[in-house]
Every structure is written in C-alpha cells, then in structure tokens.
Amino acid sequence: MRSSSAGTTSCASSSAPTTSPRLSGVGPPAKERATRRPASLVHKRVVFRNRGLPYLLVAPQMIITLVFFIWPAGQMLVQSVLLQDAFGLSTQFVWFENFTRLFADPYYIQTFRVTVIFSGATAGLALGAGLLFAVMADRVVRGAVGYKTLLMTPYAIAPVVSGVLWLFMFDPTVGVVAHGLRRIGYTWNHQLNGSQALMLVILAAAWKQISYNFLFFLAGLQAIPKAVIEAAAIDGAGPGRRFWRIVFPLLSPTTFFLVVVNLVYAFFDTFGIIYTVTGGGPAKATETLVYRVFNDGFIGLDFGGSAAQSAVLMAIVIGLTVIQFRYIERRVVY
Questions:
Q1: 269/261 Cα distance (integer angstroms)
Q2: Domains and CATH numbers, the chain
Q3: DSSP code of 223?
Q4: Taking Cα atoms as reference points, which of 182, 179, 178, 180 lies closest to residue 190?
Q5: Which of 31, 74, 178, 246 shows the smallest number of beta carbons within 10 Å?
Q6: What CA–CA distance (Å, rounded) separates 187 from 170?
C-alpha cells in the first residue's frame, strides 16, 4: 500500500504543472523582457528647485545685449525721424523727411554703389586668398608651424596700423610699391585717382582679413578624413577634381560661415582702414556707408540724417543675412 501510494503521488506530482519559472525555465514573455531597462539607464529629468537661477545666469548677456545693441538701435530709430540742431537744444519731429532727403542725394547713391563694390571685392579676395593659403599650408610637412604662425600674424594688427602700413607702401612720393610701379611705366597716385584709391583700400582690408579666413579654412581641411581623398585618388581623380568635387563641398559649412562674417566685416569693421588710408577721397571715391555715417554725424553734425543712414545700413545687413540663411544655406551640407 505504501509503495502504490508513493508511486501514485510521484506520478501526480510529475504530471502537475510547475508554477516556479526558475524550475521550469520559462521566463516572462519576450516583449516584456525587451521593454525592461536597467535602472541605471533611466533618464531623470533635472528640475531647478530655484526658478530664478536660469534667469540669473542669462542676466549678464541680456544686460549687455540691451545696453549695447537694443537701446542704441532704438535711439537710432527715434533720431532718424527727428531734426536736431548741432547742440541738441531744439528738436523737431519731421516723420520720414530725413529718408526722403537721403535718397534724393546723388552722392548717397554713389556711396551705396561704392559700398557694394568694396564689400564684394574685399570678401571675395579675402576668402579666395585665405582658402589658397590654407590648401598650401595643409600640404607643408617641414616648418608647417612656422608658416601657419606667419600667415596668422596680420590678424593681430589693428585696422589703423594696417592702413598706415599700406599707406606708406603706396605713397606716391616715398612708397616702395609706388616707386616700383613707376619704374615699370605705371603711374600710381591714389590721392588723385579714385579707382586706384578704391583698389588700395580693398587690398588693405582684404589683407587684414585673410588670416582669419586662413585659420578657419585650415581647421576645416584638417577635419576632412584623409581616407576619402585617398579613395578618390585611387579611383583616378586628379588633384583639381578631388578638390572641387570632394574637398570644397565638405568645406561648405565653413565657407558659408566665412561669407557671412566677411560681409559683415566689409560693411562695419573697415572704417579704420578707410579713415587712415584715403579719408573717403578723392571726391568720395572710397566713401562707404559706414564712413558716411561718421562723416555726416560727427563732422557735419547732421544727427537726423546720420541716424537715417544707420537705419538703412542696418536694414541692408539684416536683409543680406536673411537671404544668406534662407537661400544660400540650403546648399550647405553639414
């Protein structure tokens, strides 16, 4: 009886389903196992207990922006619709008379034309020379550090000092370059020839910006994987084809950034060079929009007209920036 009961019990126990996963080897469903994650991989949302801390951290930058950008721009817009005397004792609201008088001035149209030529030529020359020097310096093996240091040195020179250097080199009387041009039969006198004066300030302004472009182009070239260029060379692509089909497209983000920076530089940061080299002459041949703002506002004491010119210049720069980011950036491959 004991043996039969024991056998019956053992058979019953073997036929009964096992509820423990560890004994049966059956775990949770695969979908449930896939959705489980370790506790260490759970991302916790960080919440500032002090709600004023983010505003406190942003406050210095906001104060600088308001004091040095927003407030002067607002004052400029207010003064552009006012007519003031030289001492600011009397003020008259004239609506858009300053803008009407500005666009009716033929010299202002000439200044606008000079600015377009000067900005385009300066940016194009500085970008082209910077890219050329970067490609050449990237291939140098011996003395590469020395070459790169020398090419970046002009950027540390102040615009006024840069203008003085070019003024002495091209001075019609004692200039070394002017003397060399006379010896080959070319008469150089930028003090009387407006085209030569414009060419001189373009060269001086572009030379000052080449180092900045060279630094960014060189960094972009060194970031390009060498394996891509080597693969193109194995496929039979020549140096020129490799550059225009592979290297230059990969430099498109750097090129787009430098185009924006160089145009802003040509519009605003070249005042010191023009002031030192030509003073806007001869016969306003090198007078740009920025220089005219200074000439009419600080020399002629026409505060309303100068403010109107500043408003037009700000609108032009904003329009160029919008066009660049709206249309040109579409061709940029990041």
A1: 11
A2: 110-331 (1.10.3720.10)
A3: H
A4: 178
A5: 31
A6: 11
